[in-house]
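QA checklist item 7 of 12: single-chain prediction sanity check.
[x] sequence parsed
[x] length recorded as 211
[x] structure emitted
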Amino acid sequence: MISISQSQFESLLFATHSCQFISLTAVTDPAMRKRQNPYLGARKVSLVVGAINWQYSRTVNRQRGREQKLMDFKALERTWGTRIKQTPLVSHVCGPDGETRLYLEVKIERRSTFYFDRNTHQRIDEAAIEPFLTKPDEQPRQGLDREIVLRDFALKNIAELSMAGEQYTIAPAASELQLYFPAPKPSPPKRGRRRTPTTARPSARGAKVKP
Protein backbone atom coordinates (compact mmCIF):
# COMPACT_ATOMS: atom_id res chain seq x y z
CA MET A 1 0.00 0.00 0.00
CA ILE A 2 1.07 3.59 -0.66
CA SER A 3 1.15 5.93 2.34
CA ILE A 4 0.10 9.49 1.50
CA SER A 5 -0.62 12.72 3.37
CA GLN A 6 -3.85 14.69 3.38
CA SER A 7 -2.51 17.16 0.83
CA GLN A 8 -1.47 14.32 -1.48
CA PHE A 9 -4.89 12.74 -1.00
CA GLU A 10 -6.58 15.97 -2.02
CA SER A 11 -4.39 16.26 -5.12
CA LEU A 12 -5.20 12.66 -6.08
CA LEU A 13 -8.95 13.30 -5.91
CA PHE A 14 -8.77 16.66 -7.70
CA ALA A 15 -7.11 14.78 -10.57
CA THR A 16 -9.80 12.05 -10.65
CA HIS A 17 -12.37 12.89 -13.32
CA SER A 18 -13.97 9.61 -14.44
CA CYS A 19 -16.73 7.51 -12.92
CA GLN A 20 -15.19 4.52 -11.18
CA PHE A 21 -15.62 2.13 -8.29
CA ILE A 22 -13.62 2.45 -5.09
CA SER A 23 -13.39 0.92 -1.65
CA LEU A 24 -12.60 2.95 1.45
CA THR A 25 -12.35 2.73 5.21
CA ALA A 26 -13.39 5.73 7.31
CA VAL A 27 -13.19 6.41 11.05
CA THR A 28 -15.87 8.79 12.34
CA ASP A 29 -18.00 9.81 15.30
CA PRO A 30 -21.35 8.00 15.05
CA ALA A 31 -24.49 10.12 15.29
CA MET A 32 -25.82 9.38 18.76
CA ARG A 33 -28.21 10.75 21.33
CA LYS A 34 -26.45 12.24 24.36
CA ARG A 35 -28.81 11.68 27.28
CA GLN A 36 -28.20 8.57 29.37
CA ASN A 37 -25.87 7.17 26.72
CA PRO A 38 -23.12 4.89 28.11
CA TYR A 39 -21.38 4.83 24.71
CA LEU A 40 -20.72 8.54 24.24
CA GLY A 41 -17.34 9.01 22.62
CA ALA A 42 -17.51 5.74 20.68
CA ARG A 43 -15.89 5.60 17.25
CA LYS A 44 -17.38 4.14 14.10
CA VAL A 45 -15.36 2.32 11.45
CA SER A 46 -17.09 2.09 8.06
CA LEU A 47 -16.00 -0.28 5.28
CA VAL A 48 -17.53 0.99 2.05
CA VAL A 49 -17.61 -0.05 -1.59
CA GLY A 50 -19.11 2.51 -3.93
CA ALA A 51 -18.86 4.72 -7.01
CA ILE A 52 -17.49 8.23 -7.43
CA ASN A 53 -17.99 10.84 -10.17
CA TRP A 54 -21.46 9.53 -10.92
CA GLN A 55 -24.55 11.55 -11.86
CA TYR A 56 -27.26 11.42 -9.22
CA SER A 57 -30.34 12.24 -11.35
CA ARG A 58 -29.29 9.93 -14.17
CA THR A 59 -28.62 7.05 -11.76
CA VAL A 60 -32.00 7.47 -10.03
CA ASN A 61 -33.83 7.59 -13.36
CA ARG A 62 -32.08 4.45 -14.59
CA GLN A 63 -33.26 2.65 -11.47
CA ARG A 64 -36.76 4.08 -11.94
CA GLY A 65 -36.70 2.65 -15.46
CA ARG A 66 -35.68 -0.77 -14.15
CA GLU A 67 -38.60 -0.59 -11.74
CA GLN A 68 -40.95 0.42 -14.61
CA LYS A 69 -41.58 3.90 -13.20
CA LEU A 70 -41.53 7.31 -14.85
CA MET A 71 -37.97 8.49 -15.45
CA ASP A 72 -38.70 12.08 -14.46
CA PHE A 73 -36.61 12.51 -11.32
CA LYS A 74 -34.71 15.79 -10.88
CA ALA A 75 -32.26 16.31 -8.06
CA LEU A 76 -32.59 19.32 -5.78
CA GLU A 77 -29.75 21.66 -5.01
CA ARG A 78 -27.51 20.59 -2.15
CA THR A 79 -28.64 21.81 1.27
CA TRP A 80 -24.97 22.23 2.25
CA GLY A 81 -21.64 22.29 0.48
CA THR A 82 -20.68 22.91 -3.13
CA ARG A 83 -19.84 20.14 -5.57
CA ILE A 84 -16.50 20.80 -7.29
CA LYS A 85 -17.05 20.13 -10.99
CA GLN A 86 -15.11 17.36 -12.73
CA THR A 87 -14.12 15.87 -9.36
CA PRO A 88 -15.79 13.62 -6.75
CA LEU A 89 -15.31 16.35 -4.12
CA VAL A 90 -17.62 18.64 -2.18
CA SER A 91 -16.33 21.75 -0.41
CA HIS A 92 -18.03 23.11 2.69
CA VAL A 93 -17.28 26.13 4.86
CA CYS A 94 -17.47 25.10 8.53
CA GLY A 95 -17.31 26.85 11.88
CA PRO A 96 -16.98 30.48 12.90
CA ASP A 97 -13.46 30.71 11.50
CA GLY A 98 -14.68 29.90 7.99
CA GLU A 99 -12.56 26.78 7.54
CA THR A 100 -13.18 25.03 4.22
CA ARG A 101 -13.39 21.25 4.45
CA LEU A 102 -13.40 18.74 1.63
CA TYR A 103 -15.67 15.70 1.39
CA LEU A 104 -15.71 12.70 -0.93
CA GLU A 105 -19.16 12.05 -2.43
CA VAL A 106 -19.84 8.32 -2.79
CA LYS A 107 -22.72 6.28 -4.17
CA ILE A 108 -22.91 3.39 -1.71
CA GLU A 109 -22.97 -0.11 -3.17
CA ARG A 110 -22.29 -2.04 0.02
CA ARG A 111 -20.92 -1.30 3.47
CA SER A 112 -20.37 -2.66 6.94
CA THR A 113 -19.92 -0.76 10.17
CA PHE A 114 -18.20 -1.50 13.47
CA TYR A 115 -18.16 0.44 16.74
CA PHE A 116 -15.27 0.78 19.19
CA ASP A 117 -14.59 2.27 22.59
CA ARG A 118 -12.31 5.26 22.03
CA ASN A 119 -10.27 4.61 25.17
CA THR A 120 -9.99 0.82 25.37
CA HIS A 121 -10.13 0.26 21.58
CA GLN A 122 -12.41 -2.71 22.23
CA ARG A 123 -15.26 -3.47 19.87
CA ILE A 124 -18.79 -2.58 21.03
CA ASP A 125 -21.57 -4.99 20.18
CA GLU A 126 -23.82 -3.38 17.58
CA ALA A 127 -26.98 -4.66 19.26
CA ALA A 128 -25.96 -2.86 22.47
CA ILE A 129 -25.13 0.50 20.88
CA GLU A 130 -27.92 0.53 18.28
CA PRO A 131 -30.66 1.98 20.59
CA PHE A 132 -28.46 5.05 21.15
CA LEU A 133 -27.73 5.74 17.48
CA THR A 134 -29.63 8.36 15.52
CA LYS A 135 -30.32 8.23 11.79
CA PRO A 136 -30.27 11.16 9.38
CA ASP A 137 -33.63 12.44 8.18
CA GLU A 138 -34.30 11.03 4.74
CA GLN A 139 -36.85 12.38 2.26
CA PRO A 140 -38.00 9.56 -0.03
CA ARG A 141 -38.08 11.72 -3.19
CA GLN A 142 -36.58 9.02 -5.39
CA GLY A 143 -39.77 6.98 -5.48
CA LEU A 144 -37.74 3.78 -5.67
CA ASP A 145 -38.15 0.33 -4.19
CA ARG A 146 -34.35 0.11 -4.06
CA GLU A 147 -33.01 3.43 -2.82
CA ILE A 148 -29.89 5.02 -4.30
CA VAL A 149 -27.76 5.86 -1.26
CA LEU A 150 -25.42 8.86 -1.33
CA ARG A 151 -22.96 9.67 1.46
CA ASP A 152 -20.25 12.28 1.94
CA PHE A 153 -17.05 11.39 3.81
CA ALA A 154 -14.77 14.10 5.20
CA LEU A 155 -11.33 13.50 3.71
CA LYS A 156 -9.70 13.78 7.12
CA ASN A 157 -11.74 10.74 8.28
CA ILE A 158 -10.71 8.43 5.42
CA ALA A 159 -7.97 6.01 6.49
CA GLU A 160 -7.70 3.77 3.42
CA LEU A 161 -8.69 3.97 -0.22
CA SER A 162 -8.49 1.50 -3.11
CA MET A 163 -8.92 3.13 -6.52
CA ALA A 164 -7.81 2.52 -10.09
CA GLY A 165 -5.67 -0.46 -9.12
CA GLU A 166 -3.81 1.33 -6.31
CA GLN A 167 -4.19 1.07 -2.53
CA TYR A 168 -3.54 4.03 -0.26
CA THR A 169 -3.28 4.62 3.47
CA ILE A 170 -3.95 8.22 4.44
CA ALA A 171 -2.65 10.05 7.49
CA PRO A 172 -3.79 10.81 10.13
CA ALA A 173 -6.89 8.54 10.13
CA ALA A 174 -4.80 5.48 9.22
CA SER A 175 -3.01 5.67 12.58
CA GLU A 176 -6.27 5.59 14.51
CA LEU A 177 -7.60 2.73 12.39
CA GLN A 178 -4.64 0.60 13.51
CA LEU A 179 -5.87 0.90 17.10
CA TYR A 180 -9.12 -0.84 16.22
CA PHE A 181 -8.10 -3.15 13.37
CA PRO A 182 -4.47 -4.22 13.71
CA ALA A 183 -5.48 -7.43 11.91
CA PRO A 184 -7.21 -7.71 8.51
CA LYS A 185 -10.77 -6.37 8.53
CA PRO A 186 -13.80 -8.35 7.40
CA SER A 187 -15.30 -7.59 4.00
CA PRO A 188 -18.45 -5.52 3.41
CA PRO A 189 -21.59 -7.60 2.77
CA LYS A 190 -22.19 -8.81 -0.78
CA ARG A 191 -25.02 -7.39 -2.87
CA GLY A 192 -24.81 -9.61 -5.90
CA ARG A 193 -22.76 -9.40 -9.07
CA ARG A 194 -22.89 -6.42 -11.40
CA ARG A 195 -20.77 -4.81 -14.06
CA THR A 196 -18.62 -1.90 -13.03
CA PRO A 197 -16.71 0.63 -15.16
CA THR A 198 -13.54 0.03 -13.15
CA THR A 199 -12.67 -2.72 -10.68
CA ALA A 200 -10.72 -1.56 -7.64
CA ARG A 201 -8.03 -3.82 -6.24
CA PRO A 202 -8.98 -5.53 -2.94
CA SER A 203 -7.91 -3.64 0.17
CA ALA A 204 -5.15 -5.23 2.19
CA ARG A 205 -7.58 -5.13 5.10
CA GLY A 206 -10.25 -7.15 3.33
CA ALA A 207 -12.70 -4.67 1.74
CA LYS A 208 -13.16 -6.04 -1.77
CA VAL A 209 -14.85 -4.93 -4.97
CA LYS A 210 -16.21 -7.73 -7.09
CA PRO A 211 -17.23 -7.26 -10.71
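[x] summary fact logged: Residues 26 and 210 are 20 Å apart (CA to CA).
[ ] second reviewer sign-off
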